[in-house]
Specification:
Structural class: alpha/beta
Helix content: 25-40%
Shape: globular
Distance between the termini: 33 Å
């Protein structure tokens, strides 16, 4: 069955405190987004890669590819008003209804090969698969009366990407009108009444959002 990966990279990097969008920031000599795309190609050299970028960032990305001699084949779709619209634009580049598609954050370059493989393995049976990790911190729920309560962290999981789906299922889900509750692809699929399967993720698969995250990224790549 054909495999696809839609890598969504629409961030402006405001929390990084710089002018360069976070997906383009170099980590140990290579832009984050290039590392992310390479992770999927290492898993499957035949996988079709679809990169979703804002239109006004695409020329800069082309310049980076030339500067870093990045020749990994990929198609580019325009980013949308929200992540929902961006993923929908990426899906439009997939012909037909058959296959498996991963949707991944462009600023998660440290997803492990085991997690990618696990997600694609389970999607054959469950049609919708999401990697998660345990909550290791204590959680508190904020009440409307301004108070708070401790909740059982064993009842919660932290959600990662790639979230992997049957192509026809995800296309059907993205035909729905946008709703603010659609915070990830799983929530869009669940709106159809579909259950998602949870599989173990890897803790290194962090989303690079702040300058502190970049320090972690440099540490993770220090031995390259």
């Amino acid at each position: 069955m054909r495999k696809y990966a839609i890598v969504v990279a629409g961030g402006k990097g405001l929390r990084m405190g710089g002018e360069v969008p976070k997906q383009f920031i170099p980590v140990h000599g290579k832009p984050v987004l290039m590392r992310t795309l390479e992770a999927f190609r290492r898993y499957d050299s035949e996988m079709t890669l679809i990169l979703v970028l804002p239109a006004d960032q695409q020329e800069y990305w082309k310049h980076l590819c030339e500067a870093y001699r990045f020749a990994l084949p990929h198609r580019i779709a325009d980013g949308g008003e929200t992540r929902f619209h961006s993923v929908r634009n990426g899906l439009e580049l997939i012909d037909g209804e058959k296959g498996w598609v991963a949707v991944h954050d462009g600023v998660r370059p440290f997803v492990s090969q085991d997690v990618i493989a696990r997600c694609f393995s389970e999607v054959c049976r469950h049609r919708a698969v999401v990697p998660v990790t345990d909550v290791v911190e204590t959680l508190r729920h904020l009440r409307e009366d301004k108070g708070s309560d401790t909740v059982a962290r064993s009842e919660y999981r932290l959600v990662q990407t790639p979230q992997v789906f049957d192509v026809s299922l995800l296309k059907e889900a993205y035909q729905q009108p946008y709703a603010p509750c659609f915070t990830d692809d799983a929530s869009v699929v669940e709106a159809l009444g579909m259950e998602v399967c949870l599989v173990p993720g890897n803790r290194e698969n962090i989303k690079l959002t702040t300058p502190f995250d970049l320090k972690i990224a440099e540490a993770l790549t220090a031995e390259e």
